[in-house]
Amino acid sequence: MSIAISIIIPVYKENSLLPLLTHLDKLRFRERSEIILVDGDPEGSSIKPYLHQQYRCILAPQGRGIQMNYGAAIAKGHILMFLHADTFLHKQSLGDAIRIIDHLNYDAGCFSLSFNKSSFRYQWLQFWAMIRGSLLGYYFGDQVLFVKKETFNSLGGFLNCFCEDFFFLKLFRKQNYKFKLSSLYINTSVRKWKNHGFFNTLFKHLTIQLFLILGAGPTFMTSFFTKSNQPPTRTCLAVMIKDANTEPVKSRLAVSTSDDFAEQLYQAMIKDTLARFQLKSVTIMPCVKSKQPATFCNQWQIKNHIQQRHSDLGKNLVSMSETLCSTYPKIIFLGSDSPNIPRQYIVEAIKQLTDHDAVIGPTDDGGYYLIGIKSFELAQIIFTDMPWSTPNVFYETCLRLQQNDLVYYVLPKWYDIDNMCSIHKLKNDLDSNPLSAPNTYDFLTVQQKVTI
Asked: Would the pLDDT of 436 be above 90?
């Protein structure tokens, strides 16, 4: 029997998901539903206890909208249900969502709101949510949105912004899709109201809703209501990415598998690379090679990127180094062909680049998975006329550095994924440590069922 409904739960440094998951296990039709946990913490602190259980666990860059999109992208159900980690469903919620979508033929819906504490304050909030929905048609994520996957994809998913649920439903209504409010009540926690103070939280919520009623857009809402506590960045982690829709990817692997397998695996590896290496004082800068870069970045919700404009890799690296070195004291170019590189290798590369001119992470095929530099001049020395895609790249790089009396540091060796032998090695490593590349692990074990 096929999966009907995928329950997608975005999480970030949750104390414990066990009560929620135990609750869901009692409710769900196991053969017709799945639970996808999407952790925005690059260390996977929330999903770590559940990696070898029946739940699908992946990482995503932090942000509820993009986390839910990552979950939706791998969901097997034709109905997507987006559940907050502090919300408990009614015992008939899953059946009612299926009834509304499949039998009543609505495109989306949500549940009526209630709180896990009974008092006049929270009863008033419950009443206001009902009035707000019936008069204005405004529903939010704490009411547990469920939607046809086909509809969700046609609308492009959630924006990576503040109030992503509101802006999704705003576009949904504009396209004249059908929406249904279930009469069943879900039960959401009052923890944020207690932690931040009831009246402070109420004032913030009413202010948010007023701005939305007045027509504030996602850019304004995000900049106004979110605070950035990030320290100034001194290191740029430049991740090399290709658009599988316009550029050939994993060509050698595709020969022994299929183009579709190679493309989907590559996309899973990109997700792990972008999600796992979020570090303090580090800017992740996707280096995109695509014939349609704007479309690609919109699909991947990449806000800032630098484009690979040349056919030659060396020219791209030189050109991008010139741009990046004008802003960042340290530049680390990282490939996306080694999704399970230990995070400490990246941390060590940043540290060693302080006292060295360059840092290199070699691969076992003679190339490298990472190279760090500190100047545009050094990029010209290393990358110009380099014999790429040969077993001599690492050796030639070291030789050039030595000839110019430059000091470099070599990280531990790792491996690229470019053939079935490396796939099996990766699968074996991920069986022991799924958290080192959970999106890739999910692809190999759940979506493709690759066996050793």
From this structure: yes
Judgement on whether residues 261 and 396 belong to the same structural domain of the protein: yes
Beta bridge partners of 188: 87, 115
pTM: 0.89
Domain that residue 289 falls in = 235-422
Q: What is the pLDDT of residue 52?
A: 84
- pLDDT per position as a tens digit, 14-26: 988 999 999 998 8
How many domains does the chain divide into? 2
**Looking at residue 385, what is its pLDDT?**
94
Beta strands in 127-230 (DSSP E): 145-148, 179-188
Do 291 and 361 have their domain in common? yes
Could you tell me if 407 and 317 are in contact, meaning their C-beta atoms sit under 8 angstroms apart?
Answer: no
In a domain, 114, yes or no: yes
> Backbone phi, then psi, for 339, in 5-degree steps?
-70, -20
Q: What is the pLDDT of residues 311-354, one digit of tens each?
A: 999 999 999 999 999 999 999 999 999 999 999 999 999 999 99
Which residues, other chains included, contact 334 with Cβ-Cβ below 8 Å and sequence gap of 6+?
237, 238, 239, 240, 273, 277, 346, 369, 370
Q: Are 73 and 148 in contact (CB under 8 A)?
A: no
C-alpha 115 chain-centroid distance: 30
**Angstrom distance (rounded) from CA 287 to CA 307:** 6
CB 374 within 8 A of CB 407: no
Give the angle 199-204-207 at the CA atoms, nearest 5°.
120
